[in-house]
Amino acid sequence: MIRVENLVKVFGRIRAVDGLSFQVKEGEIFGLLGPNGAGKTTTIRILTMLTRPTAGEVYIAGHRLSTEAEQVKKIIGVVPQHINLDQELTVWENLELHGRLHRIPREERRRRIEELLEFIGLSDRRHDFIPRLSGGMKRRLMIARALMHHPRVLFLDEPTVGLDPQTRRKIWELIRQLNHQGVTILLTTHYIEEAELLCHRVGIVDHGHLIALGTPGELKARLGKVVVENFYNGVVDYHFFGSREEAVNFAAHLPGTVLIREVNLEDVFVELTGRRVRD
């Protein structure tokens, strides 16, 4: 559904995206995981035609982005990282405006708005102005706005940034429901849990490079199943094992404080880069 080939974006002396290549299969949730400044947002801006690449090609549903932009616009929906709803309009009016921009006929537009408000749980807030909504409600409305024209592909840039854990999980459930309806989803995130629990496959990005790609299970299996954290003399060491039994036997002889837990994607990132995703 999405094919990215040797994508490059240069800002002055900075190569924000440096030879990025990957594919997103139709019907999957694909995540780009990495710290702030890794090149995730720049990549999604290129894929959604908000920024032109310095080099490389992008294909969406078989359409070449550089020459068939109008065809691509008809089949993608975009949810940016920052809230960009019209603050002076109501919930309904924000969706109404977007529907008109896509030239959706009046009756079809009204039916679609009703359907989407029900889907995101904001039917009873249709006449509220945007400042009266919570952060989670605004995020849900932005997703609904992106879905007005029935896109086949949905791009979400850090869809749950700044939200509390409960609201974050509500957004995840919306994303899963959309995916079950056949929408292909590409999202960026720096939340380890989000990438592990939501994405079918994950591309780990650092300094504009794709440094690892696979399912969360495949990426974690590169290190093992269980990790032993050993804090001693002000230093934390990490040791990886294929089973909890091996980890327990090893930990029994260690000085200091010991924690035994399952391997996660942050462990993979640390092993590849020497630092944490949050850094």
TrEMBL record:
**Family assignment from sequence similarity:** Belongs to the ABC transporter superfamily. Drug exporter-1 (DrugE1) (TC 3.A.1.105) family.
Task: State the annotated membrane topology for this chain.
Answer: Peripheral membrane protein
* Gene Ontology MF term list: ATP binding; ATP hydrolysis activity
Transmembrane stretches, start-end: none
Looking up Pfam families in the UniProt record yields: ABC_tran
Main localization, broad class? membrane
InterPro entries in alphabetical order: AAA+_ATPase, ABC_transporter-like_ATP-bd, ABC_transporter-like_CS, ABC_transporter_ATP-binding, DrrA, P-loop_NTPase
Where would I find the ABC transporter domain in this sequence?
Answer: 2-232
Highest taxon above the source species: Bacteria
* Subcellular location as annotated: Cell membrane
UniProt cross-references to PROSITE patterns, sorted A to Z: ABC_TRANSPORTER_1, ABC_TRANSPORTER_2
Query: Which UniProt keywords are listed?
Result: ATP-binding, Cell membrane, Membrane, Nucleotide-binding, Translocase, Transport
Q: Return the protein name.
A: Daunorubicin resistance ABC transporter ATPase subunit
GO BP terms: daunorubicin transport; doxorubicin transport
One Gene Ontology cellular component: plasma membrane
Keyword ATP-binding on entry: yes
